[in-house]
């Protein structure tokens, strides 16, 4: 892999996918361990964010524990209707992200609602608006989320 | 992480969440910046953050790598039909693999949808994803009654999850 990452960027990525300290000057604390200055660490993080090598930096929240509803939903939409349905589905603010996938179930989106009860309401609204069935596939059990992957 | 240590989030916690869900400020004293945004003290914000981390409201604090730009161009959502009584055992085995980023049990919708275990598999291209999926299939043996890889062909919408700001 030819990536625009030097040894220090790799050390940041591999060692701080979690465990970033909570203290008044956390960047200073980590920079000292990496043998660089606080401002250099901040600049490197900014640069990796700008280059989209990081999708974000900071606390990652556990969505379900914030009290809202969350579910993965799938639809199978005929090709001729796809663009119309896509526009209708995306217009719901509760649709957080939506992916086209190569399968008869060809539309997959995540619903995020203010309360868990709202999931079934929004789901029915999507079915009524689009005229197609929505398959609700909420998480029943989580085995792992995160990354152990090294660059 | 257990499900028994749930805590009640109050107004200040929610303000801290809203202030940090897109990221920790990239400044020398990030918790002081958050404190000024939520009208609290740095110590209180750090204490709340520690509490939410301990309770699993915050999964972790740090860098969230972007698989795609870091060279993992082949990402497949793999779905598996596992006997219900084996799904936890198989899910834990799959979740422990270093090329899997998420693994969940989800409901079937028979007869249209028979799969009950989902795992995101990452590789540098589709060929590598397929090799890894074969490794999983070999590992599961007869517990695997069928599987498929669903590649994403297009991102139709991506806004991320956002908690609405409190009034």
TrEMBL record, chain B:
Pathway: Porphyrin-containing compound metabolism. Keywords: Lyase. Its EC number is 4.1.1.111. GO terms for molecular function: lyase activity. SUPFAM superfamilies: Winged helix' DNA-binding domain. Belongs to the Ahb/Nir family. This is siroheme decarboxylase. It comes from Sedimenticola selenatireducens. The lineage of its organism: Bacteria, Pseudomonadati, Pseudomonadota, Gammaproteobacteria, Chromatiales.
